[in-house]
Amino acid sequence: MHAKPPQASGRGQRNLGLASLLRRLGSRIAKPLAARGLIGAQSSKEARFPDIADHAPVMMWVTDPSGYCIYLNRRWYEFTGQSRAEAEGFGWLDATHPDDKARAEDAFHAANAARALFQVEYRLRRADGSYRWVLDTASPRFGEDGGYLGYVGSVIDIHERVQAEERLRESEDHFRHTVELNPQVPWTADPDGHITSYSSRWLEMTGQAPDEPYETGWAKAIHSEDLAPTLARFSQSLTSGEPVDVEYRIHIAATGEARWMRARAYPRRDGSGRIIRWYGIVEDIHDRKFAEQALREREAQLNLVLDGALDAFLAFDAEWRLTVFNTQAERFFGVSRDEVLGHPLWEVFPQAVSTDIERRLRGVMDRREAETFEVRSAVHPDRILEMHAAPKLDGGIAASFTDITDRKQAEAALQESQEKLAEERARLTTLVDNLPVGVCFIDPDGNPLLSNPAFRHFIPSGIIPSRLHDAEERWLAWNDSGEQIVRNDYPAPRALRGETVSSVEFLHRTEAGQETWTRFSGVPLRTAEGRVDGALLVIVDIDEQKRAQEMLRRLNEILEAQVAERTAERDRVWENSNELMAVFGFDGKRRAINPAWARVLGYDEHTLLNTPFMEITHPDDRERLKEQVQKLARGERIAAFEDRLRCADGSYRTISWTGVPGDGVFYGIGRDITEYRQAEEALRQAQKMEAIGQLTGGVAHDFNNLLTIIRSSTDLLRRSDLPEERRRRYVDAISDTVDRAAKLTGQLLAFARRQALKPEVFDVADRVRGITDMLRTIVGSRIQIVTEVECERCFVEADLTQFETAMVNMAVNARDAMDGEGTLEVKVKAMPTMPAIRGHAGGPGDFVAISMTDTGTGIPADKLPHIFEPFFTTKEVGKGTGLGLSQVYGFAKQSGGDVAVESTVGQGTTFTLYLQRVEEEPNGDAAGSPREEALETGRGRRVLVVEDNVEVGQFATQILQDLGYAPTWAANTDEGLRLLAANPEGFDVVFSDVVMPGMSGLEFGRLIRQRYPALPIVLTSGYSHVLAEEGRHGFDLLQKPYAAEELSRVLRRLVRGGRAQGPA
């Protein structure tokens, strides 16, 4: 674009006019000044010149012919702050700006030499030290004789004018460059729309000739599909006078492509309103148009992802106007996005004004730093939200809200449980310190964590609490054979290597030289992954017991081994979660993923995008995942779907998914809840430990009572003068005590729902009547028991002992609910079916219902779903273990029945136990067989004994020999199979343990049934989780510890063919 050349400025004219004025002034004062400069008389008019100059509004000065300044008026000194001595001569130049001084001095000397008009602009220092632009103009003075007398001049402040001219020059320069660099095409047209001027940029884009765009020739460059609507829009504007705004495509000459343009024009009117010219521009909007389209598509995709998120997301610009508000935000805040988008945040949520939320958000806006803090939900004030606010590139803020109420509650509950656990640990420490046996817990490095005085009694002084390995170097001990024990054979190193060391006996020599027999046990403590995380060591002084009878020693060893096998494992609580976001295709591939996938799972992005999502899904979860994908393919949303994903290291993470369908894809957001699930498990384990702490004292008390009887009886049996009748009485007492210990162990296993039940047929009505007196003793005299039996000959097949224990547990629960006073109603009746209980389908067939109804306080509705959970209790700490109703539930489920509960707060509770009814009548002979008959001789029958424990195997072999059998002992199943293969007809019956290394007794039994179907087999076990969970699998089971008469009875029945073996 071109413009007319600029006109001469008025600045030079003004300067010349001022010079003329000064020349006239100089001519008028030249003579007086010359006379004053030399010598001579002065007229009164001449004498008044300094007074006139000092009152002039401008600075004035006079020089002699050499250029020496001989006069400066008062205005000069006021402006510059110089003194007369500083300014006269050439001192006035010192007030000139350093950058201008040389130029001003050169200009003055050049003019003085030429006796010419002097004019220069420079910056002059003011009295305050600042500089201002001035115009210094002077004319030469000549005497009457024509002689040169010097200059007379004036200095004018032109600072504002110079700055204005500078701004004008910058504006003109900026406009010129703007036009030259503008990528748009400016144009003009006459009132009829004919092009009158245009930018050369149009020719560069279209390739038209210079004269071609005039008139309507520009339209030839428009795309044929856009020509008609474009001309119509121009015609409409020409008719109406409205501005033009139209988009069309033109053909680009350089590339041949069609690019989108936007043409805009506005009319210029005269005073009467008539259009005299159109001014317009054409701009290339091709890239922007497609970028806007892509942006709209990405925004739509992002909105779909955000609407599927579990968290609330919102964003606002620098003016606090809301720009994003997803579906979850609508739920959190109770408003729809259509109501709030585009409105200021503080207008939508006025309750947040002048609160901590506003202060924090404004801090994020000002500092441009992210911040996370907690707020309360406006819709649900009882819910806690975690708000994460982060600055955006456009100057606004993006914020997310996560409901952390459950997590906060779980953390609080976990903290409370940990505090209780610490209290129980203190109690347990006190209990351990008072145990008569030595107990020590060590970590994987052998450092003692907890030990009691009894244990430290055997350790050299100064060792605890250092590493136990240091004690072993100073510990001297020998085994039964008199061989000194080497360090690696001590129980602690062996337990830390993963071995279970049971009842190893050492002859220990103390530092004082005293020798004492001790029994040492060590059990490895393992994590949930099976890694050894420490060991439990138990040491017992058995110096006196070594002289006890062999039978008692073996019995104690068996009991020690059983106790050692009951060590609990510790669980771990895992850390917080990450969230996974992805776009999935229905072809089984991920289309896009966020960086959280790599952080959580450990894979790189390329691997995840090119691996079918089913491949890293846990095999057990794939079918369920397929069902969820099918729902999404049908257009349904999914929420709270959990599956497990395999990490790069082979581990699995539990992810909770929310998914929404899209156009040919679906969008998913997964939250890593692995640590959350682990935190829940840790809370349950802490509650279990709290109850276990209470249970430990009771179990220890009961076992100590039993051991007291055994200890006292064995001490008396040592007396040589003991009568035979009393000797038999003490032996019977030991036998009965062992039975009671076995029953106590069975009850503990039943509490844990791990007991292998021994079902038998009995009449429920008879047992309820028979146990009523015992229940009265348990509940106390202030509670009245009312029994109502509506069913006669109510036969069921279940474990009688566990049935009675369940009745006692329900009665104790009722007693506590009534606070020792009220009415307990016990009913027995027949039921045609078992109703549906807790959402589970009922059972077909006849059932017997045994119900207990109390008049107690009742159970709150929110507690009912948890009352059968192990260790759950509504009682105060220290007043309940939470195992009673768990035993009832476990017994009912293992017996093929169930237990139901109905409760009304303030009125009472009814527990109903359902057991399946049978037609078979009780066998009255089995339990009443006399002991003498049971001990009938084995008559030389051949028994294959399979037992991995040396002491138990030798003991069983000795018993069978004493009973008249011909036993052969195999230390494991492989040896047993070799003996059978060598002589298939060489045995009449097989007697095998269940829990053994390698092949278990159950697998061994099934294999014998396949190979030797006619050979009977009897299994024996103190505890087996397989038996407890799945039953006896048709085998005869002899529970440890067993009596000789029980073993004899079972073997005799089998070898006589009195019981057919069941199917495998």
From TrEMBL:
Enzyme Commission numbers on file: 2.7.13.3
Swiss-Prot/TrEMBL keywords: Coiled coil, Kinase, Phosphoprotein, Transferase
CDD domains per record: HisKA, PAS
Phosphoprotein among keywords: yes
Residues forming coiled coils: 407-434
InterPro entries the record matches: CheY-like_superfamily, HATPase_C_sf, HATPase_dom, His_kinase_dom, HisK_dim/P_dom, HisK_dim/P_sf, PAC, PAS
Domain Response regulatory residues, every copy: 942-1055
Stated name of the protein: histidine kinase
Provenance organism: Microvirga aerilata
Modification type 4-aspartylphosphate: residues: 993
Residues annotated as domain Histidine kinase: 698-919
EC main group: transferase
GO molecular function list: phosphorelay sensor kinase activity
Domain spans labelled PAC: 118-170, 244-297, 502-554
The keyword Signal belongs to this UniProt entry's keyword annotation: no
Highest taxon of the lineage: Bacteria
Catalytic activity reported: ATP + protein L-histidine = ADP + protein N-phospho-L-histidine
Domain PAS: 45-115, 171-241, 298-368, 566-636
